[in-house]
Structure formats: structure tokens, C-alpha cells
Amino acid sequence: MYSSRAASRSWTGLFLLISALCCLFSPSLMVKHENFKTCDQSGFCKRNRAYADNAAATSTSWTSPYTLDPQSLSLKDGQLTGIILKSIAKDAEPVRLPLTVSFLESGSARVTVDEEKRQKGDIVLRHDSKARKERYNEAGNWALVGGLELNKGAALSNQEEDGYTRVFYGKEGKQEAVIRHHPFGIEFKRNGETHVKFNDRGLLNMEHWRPKVEKPAEEKKEGEEENKEGEAEKKEENSEEKGEDEGTWWEESFGGNTDSKPRGPEAVALDISFPGYEHVFGIPEHATGLSLKETRGGDGKYSDPYRLYNSDVFEYELNSPMTLYGAIPFMQAHRKGSTVGVFWMNAAETWVDVVKAKSSPNPLSLGIKSHTDTQTHWISESGLLDVFVFLGPTPQDVIQSYGELTGFTAMPQSFAIAYHQCRWNYVSDEDVMDVDRKFDKHNIPYDVIWLDIEYTQEKKYFTWDPLTFVNPIKMQKQLDKRERKLVAIIDPHIKNTDNYNVIDDMKSKSLAVKNKDGNDYEGWCWPGSSYWVDCFNPAASAWWKTLFKYDKFKGSAPNTFIWNDMNEPSVFNGPETTMPKDNLHHGNWEHRDVHNLNGMTFHNATYNAILERKKGEVRRPFVLTRSFYSGSQRSAAMWTGDNLAEWSHLEASIPMVLNQGISGFPFAGADVGGFFGNPSKELLTRWYQAGIYYPFFRGHAHIDTRRREPYLAGSPYTEIITQALRLRYQLLPVWYTAFHEAHTTGAPIIRPNYYVHPDDERGFSVDDQLYIGSTGLLAKPVTKEGTDSVSIYIADDQPYFDYFDYTIYQGAGHHTVPAPLEKIPLLMQGGHIIPRRDRPRRSSGLMKFDPFTLVVVLGKDGNAEGSLYLDDGETFDYQSGAYIHRRFSFDKATNSLTSINIGTKGPKTDAYLKLMKNVRVEKVIVVGALEIWKGKTEVTVSEEGSKESARRRKAAFEYHEGEKGKANWAVVRDPKVGVGRGWKVDFSG
Fold first, then answer.
1. Catalytic residue among 312, 565, 576, 922
2. How confident is the model at residue 556 (pLDDT cuts 50, 70, 90)?
3. What pLDDT is stored for residue 361 in this prediction?
4. Where is each Glycosyl hydrolase family 31 C-terminal domain found (predicted)?
5. Per-residue model confidence as pLDDT tens digits over 56-76
6. Boundary residue ending a domain (406, 439, 459)
7. Backbone phi, then psi, for 156, in 5-degree steps?
């Protein structure tokens, strides 16, 4: 029986849960700002902003109190070590901060600063806390997977220079780190030019450990009024930190919760400047434009820094630096001719200020132009100062270097990049099967149907509601007939109830996150009272794997995959709708140290669990996550969370998904149609036309919305949506090839203008259109109501052709492209070859052996090139050579189209080629066809490996003269060449 105190806590929790649910179902669609901190309400952010203000106000006299001891410096095998000394109170011993600068073989550099007293455990924790004494130093164990080989050729400069240490590193020693001793700072140079500066403005601040000195209570004088609430937060007289507000050093309250802070103040902060760079990108997730705005107030600027603190922010607002569900602290700075980047590897709550300082040249300085420096200020609540620097010089170089550290996108199963149908919730297994049948009845393709939390028995994961999901195996067998899949939601909160083996097991094995006292933490989420699995604990992850075995998760099948939601973690009655920061994880690390990693540990565990569901069944997992960190791309896809069925949210989705791509996590999408609210039929249609360009493409809706499956829209909307879906399926070879490129190089799957045209200054901030992979396909989704045309920005002088009717657009600048409701604005850049599959099917799995069409789009020089990657779309056999990777080239000089192998043979190559031997190219379309072909009726085809009589053969050829404003085009019909073999089509023969 519960004690009265326990019962009181339960009723309080129930009240908070009901309040949270009432907020969720409120008809007023707006974020509850009072639930989330601003910088002024976050003690360490406010302190460090004040520190920056003080430095700026006293700039002529300001000196950073951090000095590098030159006698401590040592460079060995590519790693420089030393001690930074922080000056504090007069006559006090300086604080010792161990410094490590690692110069990596990749050309990147890593700067790490620790705190000696905490490192040695030479501190005392308050409140008899069980928390670790060190600064959190395990983020790299989760985020990093490679790229850490040291550049042993890194060398000190031969020239001695007082107050500086210079290290040359990278290829041919063209990169340089200039380390200033007093005050401590670093400049990173490439080819003699400075691109990144650390502590240039003197904002480095590591809040060192100090004991809390309790003041004796002062006796009140006669007649003195009672102290007012808040006066207890006065500064301590004997503190060496003069003039600093100590009110949030030792504890901090927000929203009725108090954070105990057993280690006291421990924030880390650093200013990082990019001289000569006006545009910075990255640090998702925020509902903002691609080029980051300034954050220090003013017209069109934000007044708060960008916040990285994974949070459940439903009904989030747009054009805001407010935190959302995930955090990737990776930023790129870009200008014509150069891209550089930094990765701030810290998993604690982090704020980033962005300021752009414009300089005007002296009128007497001939030839010197004005320029802009972007100055950023990074502030984290705890942990190490641990920063990677990437010196480019191209966007591709920076993103690939980051990917080599944190891992590239997992190669998905082919179904995962097709269309997903979801809502909260399909109400029964019969409902699911009915939706499946209706997609077939209306000839609408889809691959995956999803189940939200209502499929479970009383919100208990790994169960099925016995009244509504009576026969889940029968349901999945029906899906499997069309090679379709099921995705079911499983969240990290486990219902605390009787007669539930999962929670009983979790408790008995002590696998839950702990509260500050070391007891299992109890909070509230969808099931009510819940415990959270602690996937930082290897034992918890190992246990988690067992739950997905088919004999444990009864009713699941090989075509069942998983959705991890609420893994920020979302806690309805917690501070800022998440866990208290003084909770404890495995190893007694506080939650404050690891918060932004939490979601990734959970979806990593789920990925590994799916991988091992059955011995001998090795299939690529599919996991969707809402919360993420650097490295999440290795095991999950993501979506942008609880958006609204409004035109503005459709518009915002494009830069949000683009930003994910350039930040190393390209398998991203947004809820098509909007999660909250009911879209008009026009908005729904336009959202599908935009959604086909999301790498992760899913329609989703809230439980209170009207049903909106595509077949319910009615004519002409259903037909238009169906055509959009078929375009996605037609171009699946393009998407799969782009995913392979992301998997092997880290390249974004959809790409912004600056990435494709890095020297086009007018297009650096363009974020409402996108390129698909390396194909030259340029899309501009319609995102405004009542639109019948769009303005597409073209950055180069290549000809661009309308995908559907070959209308020509050429010349740098904006071009008006017709976009009535039934039209999807999509252009093809000259110089590319686009592989596609033209036969409409009901799912991607049914397309596996379909023939290909190659669309050859000639560039201004008459040439074109493209590639195709294929594997079985299911297993890991591609790692043993079971794939086809071809490069197609059209050469005007030889008047021929060729296919050559660019793959590497492995032990399973021959078997896969045999499996695919009958898959052929059934058509070649040439856009911008050469006039010399006019009147030609056949071409000559030759193929390797064919019988002698078939090695050279004729294929039918048709030439079409373009109407006014449209390109000439030609068709080679059924050249009968295998997609996995080498061949040549000779247009002169």
C-alpha cells in the first residue's frame, strides 16, 4: 500500500500529466514559451553573456585571464600538450587547465581543455552527491568512430617568436596553428591566411571548481524589515569572482523544479571567429533559415542565442533560435573560395551567439574591400572544452572530414526511402489492412504503414491491444504480399505498473536512470508513471536487444521496424518537459552532462536490437528517431517533429531538412501535411509535391485530425498526389544512388545552392530550392497558397530543362517557371545523366528487377555524365561486393554513350551480377539532342560479354525537334544492354 506521501506524489504527477495533455489538445496552436528557458533564465548562459558584455564594454583594458605556460609545452607524434593557467583572485594560485591540441592525419585539428582539480577528483561534492567529480569526458565514445589518426609529421616552426608557438600540419604542411601564450588563443591558417580564431575576443571562460563558503546569518538590527525573497542570492564576500552573480552557482530553480548542482558552477565557453566569412550554417535543430541570423538583437535579428538542448517542443514556432528535438553542434562558415567548420563536442545544454562584424575600408586604402567577420560565442553548462577545426577548403571537404569523425549515413533498406503512411493512430489491425487495400484500389504506391502508441495494451511497449490488434501477424502477412513493411513506435519510458514483465525485469536488473539520490527515477509520460531505460549502461543496451526477439515481442515479424519517439527524453512533469539535470546515468554521470546524447544512445540500442532479432537473419535495420546528436546518422533517420498544417511550416521544412543534410544527418524529413491541424486540399497536395524531395518521406497526422490518406482527397487532388508519389518512385534509383554517396562520402542527399555552387555569392543564402544528389535535378517546391508559378534561381550558365516538357531555362539569375496545381517545378541541369525506372508499381520491392531508363541531359559543351548504384536493398552483402556501380558518360567528341564499372569486386560480386543479369536498360532519352542526328533512325550498340553475333547490333532511334522554347530530344528504344555490364551506344554508327 502507498504511504500518504507517496499517494500525494502520485496525485501530483497525475495532475501534471492531465495538465500536459490538456495543453497538448488545446485548440490554440502555439508553443508554450513559459515551459522553456531563455538565456536570461539559464544561469550559466546569462553569466557568460554578461562576461562577454563586460569584455566588450572594457575592450581597451580587457585582458583574458588565461595564459599558456610556455614551459609546459611539448609536441610529440602530432599532439601538443601544455597547461593553461587561469588567474583568479589576487595572491591566489592560478587554476591549472590541461591543454591538448591534436593534429589529425585528415588535416583537421582538435583542441581539448580540461580542469586539473576535477580531472584528479580533487574536489568535494555538495549534498553528499553520488555524481562523478570529473568533467564529462565520454562524449567522444558515442559521437566519434574514426578519423583520429595523428599527423605525426606535424612540426614546430623553425622560427622562434616570443609569445607564440607555431605548428605546421596537414598535407604538405600548408595548415598552421598559431598558438598565442598570453592571453591564450589560437589562429588556424591555411596557405598563410587565418580562417578560424579561438579566444580572439577573450571570452574563453572555464568556471573552475571552488567550495561553497556559507555565510553566517547576520543578526537583524532593531526595526530592520524582513529580508525579501531573492536576497539570499547575494554575492559571497570572500569569493574570488568579483562582480559575478552567484545566484545560480549552487542551485537553480525553474518551473517548480530545483536543480541541486552538486559540483557548483562548471560552464565552459569560448569565442570562435571566422574572419572574412559572412555566412554560417548548421547547428541544427532550429526552425530557421539556412544562413544563421545574428543573435544579439536589432532589426531582423534574434535577441537570444541559438539553443541546443533536446526538448519536446510541440507546436514549435518558426523563425526562432529556440531549441528543438535534436542537437548537432557542427557549424560551417562559407565564403567565395573557402569553407571551414568547427565541431563543438559537448553534450550538455549549449547556447551559441552569432554576431557579424562589418568593416569598412579606409578610403585611402586602394583595392581593399569591406568584409564581414562572423563572431560566434559557444557556451555549455558542463563538460570539457573539446573542439574540432576543419579548414576545408570546400564544403565537400568540411562535411566529409566531419563525417570521417562521426560516421556516415547508414545505407538504408530500399523501402525506407520510398513513401511511408502514418497517423496517430490506425485504430485496429483491420483498419491497417483496409488502408493497405485502398492504396491498391486507387493504384497509389506506398511501402510502409506506421502504428503510433494506441496499438499497445495500455501503453505497455512490446504488447498489442488484445481488443483492437487481435492478429498482428495476419496484418503483416497481408502487407508482405506487396513487400510492404510495418513500423511500430517504442519509446524509452517504460510503464510502472503491476503484471508487466518488462518493467519488472528492468527494476530487478537496475537498468533505469536514477534520481540524484541513486534510486530509480520515476516520471510521467504517455503511460502515466514511468521509468526510463538508461542506454548509457551497456547492460541496459544488452537487455534491450532481448526484448525485440520474435519470441519476446510476440506479434512482430521480419517486416516490423521501429520508431523511437519522446527520447529527448520527454518527461511531462519534469523541468522543461524533460529529466532533472541532477539525475544520474551509468557511471554516475549527471544528466546535465549527457542530455543531448540521450536520444542517440536509445536509438543506437534499438538499431542493434533490430539487427539481432533472430540468429542468421541479417537485414539492415530501420529506426526513426526524434532526438539526435552528432553520430545519429549511423543508425537512424529523423524528422522535424510536431509541425503544423500551415503553409509557413511547409515553407520552413525545406531549409530545416537542407540544414540536416549539410550537418551530417541527411536522412531527414518533415511530417507531410503537418502534424497538428487539418490542411486544405491545396496545402495537402503541395506538401506531397514538396515531400517527394525529403530524403525521409512520410505523411503523418495528429490523433484529432481528420483522416487524410491520399485516396480521400478526391478528384483532382488524389490524382495529382498520386502523380507526385509516382515521380518519387520513378526516381528511386536517383535517391538510392544519392544515399550511397552519403554513405561513402558524407555528402548531403539534398543540397543547397552554396554546396553545389560554392563561388556563387548571390546564392549563398538561397534555401527554398534544392538539388538531388549529384544528378543536377533542381527542385523548387511550391510553398505559398494560390501560386501558379515559382521563381527558380540558376547559379551557372548551363542550360536547364524542365523535367516534363524540356522547356529551356538558361542564364544566371531568377527564372519564372509555371507551377499550376498539377505541376511540380523540377529542372534538369545540363551535363548530367539521370537513371530512373518508369514502370508504376505498388511498392519499391516490386521494382527490384524492373528495367531502367537513362535520361541524358546534354550540357553546354555537349557532354553528360552520371552514375547508378544498385544492391539488393536489404542485406549487408554489398559490403562483400554484391552491388552494381556504373558510370555513364556521353562524349560529344566520340558521339557515344558508354557504361563503365566503378565498383570494386568482392567475394559476392559475381553472384549478384548473375541475379541481375536480365535487368536491362530499356530506353535512353537524350535531352538537348544534337541536330546532326536529325533524320537518323538507328544507332549501333555494343556490349561486353555478349555472344559474338550480338556484340554489335542496331537499336531503333527517334529524333524529335523541340517546339518553341523547348529542347530537341531523341530516344533510343530498347538497346537491350544489361545494367550491370559494360556497353556503348554509338550515335554516329
1. 565
2. very high
3. 66
4. 746-834
5. 999 888 999 999 999 999 999
6. 406
7. -75, 150
What is the number of other CB atoms lying within 10 angstroms of the CB of residue 800? 22
Statement: residue 27 has pLDDT above 50: no
Query: Which of 252, 312, 436, 568 is labelled catalytic?
Result: 568
692 in the same domain as 553: yes
Q: Annotate 382-444 with DSSP letters as a single string.
A: SS-EEEEEE--SSHHHHHHHHHHHH-PPP---GGGGSEEE--TT--SHHHHHHHHHHHHHTT-
3-state secondary structure (DSSP) of residue 629: coil
Number of other residues whose CB lies within 10 A of the CB of residue 21: 12
Q: Are residues 271 and 130 in the same domain?
A: yes
Averaged pLDDT for residues 633-647: 98
**Exposed, middle or buried: residue 337 (CB in 10 Å: 0-12, 13-18, 19+)?**
exposed
Is 640:661 a contact under the CB 8 Å cutoff? no
803 — phi, psi (to 5°)? -60, -30
Domain boundary (698, 715, 736) is at 736
Q: Give me the phi and psi of 177, to 5 degrees please.
A: -110, 120
Residue 923 — φ and ψ, nearest 5°? Answer: -160, 145
Could you say which of 582, 642, 741, 877 is catalytic?
642
Within a domain: 105: yes
pLDDT digits (tens, 9 = 90+) for 302-357: 999 999 999 999 889 999 999 999 999 999 999 999 999 999 999 999 999 999 99
Residue 820 placed within a domain: no
Return the bridge partners of 952, or none: 942
Residue 224: pLDDT band with limits 50, 70, 90? very low
d(CA 111, CA 270): 12
pLDDT at 613: 96
568 is catalytic: yes
- Residue 565 bears catalytic tag: yes
